[in-house]
Amino acid sequence: MAPDIGPHVCENETHRAHVPLRAWLFIAGAFALLNGGCAMNPVSGMPELALVSVEQEKKIGAEEAKKVEQQMGLLDDAALTQYLNTLGQRLADQSPRKDVAYQFHVADMAEPNAFALPGGYVYVTRGLLALTNSEDELAGVVGHEIGHVAARHSVQKISKQGPFAVVFGIVSGITGLVSPLVGNIIGGIGAFTQSLVFAPYSRSQETEADRVGQEMAARAGWDPAALSAFLNTLERDVELMNKGPRKPSFFDSHPATPDRVAKTAEHAKELTRATRQPISASREAFLARLDGVVVGQRAANGIFEGQAFLHPDFNLFVQFPEKWQLENSPEKVAAVAPDGEAAVILGAAAEGNDPLDGARALEKAAKSSDIVAKTQSITIGGLPAAHTQIETDGRLKLDLTWIAHGGLIYQLAGLAPTKRFDSLQAVFHSVAHSFRPLSASERATIKEQRIRLVRAHAGETIEALASRSNSAWKKEEVAVANGLALGDQLKDGQLLKVTIAEPYAPKKPR
Q1: What are phi and psi of 314, to 5 degrees?
Q2: Do 305 and 328 form a contact (C-beta atoms < 8 A)?
Q3: Interior CA angle at 122 toward 116 and 124, to 5°?
Q4: Crossing angle of the two packed helices 135-150 and 203-219, in degrees rounded to 10
Q5: Which of 284, 378, 405, 477 is the most exposed place for a label (fewest CB within 10 A)?
Q6: Are 376 and 368 in contact (CB under 8 A)?
Q7: What domains lie within the chain, and their CATH numbers?
């Protein structure tokens, strides 16, 4: 929805009497800062207050897209990415909005999600792809996200924060870091929980994006009813996952409503589907594109086994504290204390074999002059290392260890309030001194789950197929991922997705 002040500005002069002079001065200042103004929404056809110009929208989108790539990562599968882009561009040709260049990417995220950024950046995660069962379903999801861009829903979310929020970057994740030093160490850890990427849409915005996406899909030759089927699969997956540890999902940013599946099914009946050949010739051809996609943790990113972090390509092992929450991003690995007041962060600080290069890099980035001087050379697990402690501003203290291994300098940073730091020193010391290369047996046992396709036998149950194929998915997960009921009897030759735990073939260790 457009901001409430929109009609007062855009419709006519008679509404001005309802807006206080102070508000008008604020709005005028916002226009001066943002070069915004009245605009016609491409989807609704209604005027709205545009606190963000199209050029600013593109700039915000480009900045957030860099964060997605750096902090979440993009899947390094050229064929799958090209397929998604081909599908997305065909949908974008039907978009009511033509003043942005749409881009489509597969985000390297295990959870099922899809999101769009201002300026036309559209993402689906590998976790979401694992739940799709047809090209029509994928087109419905991508069309929905294009609908958010076309209707400028992200811009409306930004506008509701007020113009100065846009100017000073509140939409860009973590702000107000206590110092450049801490900012350099934390980087993007946890930023997406507060960022524009996963900010929720309103119910009306969801309904509008559903409608626009289905209409685009129908005009592009896909079945608009497939969106309903996929939303139903997602709801089932959320219910199944909620029986275990809570994970973020599509419905965190796209609220589920009891009647949403029914509404999209009804709207599909009103649409005429264009006659066009699909990109994938059949459902089997579509599923073949998903064969080999990793579900869950990717070993190439490093994996957690309990509280231990193992990275086969970088040949390292680190043990994090029990009950601390873990997060793995392309740039850093973090463990956060249960109360949220302390953390340990692992990242690569520099290239080389001298651990003091890590201290030098941080000193330069933080514009400090005494980090190296306070650092002592030590040895950890037979590896050259260096250690220091820094108090930033009287409130926060850091325990910093740099370890040289395989041509890289790794940085382990323990952060805690000064008043609690002494009680956590043993924890920080234990984590840093757990750093070591992997053993041969540890490397050999690292596996990852990949989607594989299995043909059913006539009359076979899902439980029997899951058992016969050694599926890492339980029978309930196989049923949900394939859009089937658990009690369904399968047809001879029917193709189903399962996941198989397969040994990881690492790159040559460092």
Answers
A1: -100, 0
A2: no
A3: 100
A4: 120
A5: 284
A6: no
A7: 55-282 (no CATH), 291-301+447-510 (no CATH), 316-437 (3.40.1000.10)
Mark out the alpha helices in 161-259 (DSSP H runs): 163-167, 180-186, 203-219, 226-241, 250-253
Residue showing tokens 């040949």: 315
The reported pTM is: 0.83
Q: Which of 102, 211, 181, 121 is nearest to 361 (CA)?
A: 181
CA distance 61 to 81: 19
Cβ-proximal residues to 261 (8 Å cutoff; 6+ apart), any chain: 228, 231, 232, 235
Report the mean per-residue pLDDT for the chain: 84
Query: How deeply is 270 buried, as exposed, middle or buried, from its count of CB atoms within 10 A (0-12, 13-18, 19+)?
Result: exposed
C-beta contacts of 275-282 below 8 A and 24+ residues apart: 275/221, 276/220, 276/221, 277/221, 278/135, 278/136, 278/221, 278/222, 279/83, 279/86, 279/87, 279/90, 279/135, 280/135
C-beta of residue 117 within 8 angstroms of C-beta of residue 197: yes
Strand order in the sheet with 103-107: 103-107, 121-125, 114-117
285-331 pLDDT, tens per residue?
Answer: 999 999 999 999 999 999 999 999 999 999 999 999 999 999 898 88
Specify the pLDDT at position 490. 97
- Give CA 175 to chain center in angstroms: 19
Structure tokens at 280: 């994938």
Contact in structure between 309 and 328 (CB atoms under 8 Å): yes
Give residues with Cβ within 8 angstroms of 503, minimum separation 6: 444, 446, 447
Beta strands at 103-107 and 114-117: parallel, antiparallel or unpaired: unpaired
Asked if residues 267 and 214 have their Cβ atoms less than 8 Å apart, the reply is yes
Contact 499, 442 (CB under 8 A): no
Tell me the torsion sign for CA atoms 24, 30, 32, 36.
negative
- The residues near 267 (Cβ < 8 Å, ≥ 6 apart) are 210, 211, 214, 224
Q: Is residue 217 within 8 Å of 140, Cβ to Cβ?
A: yes
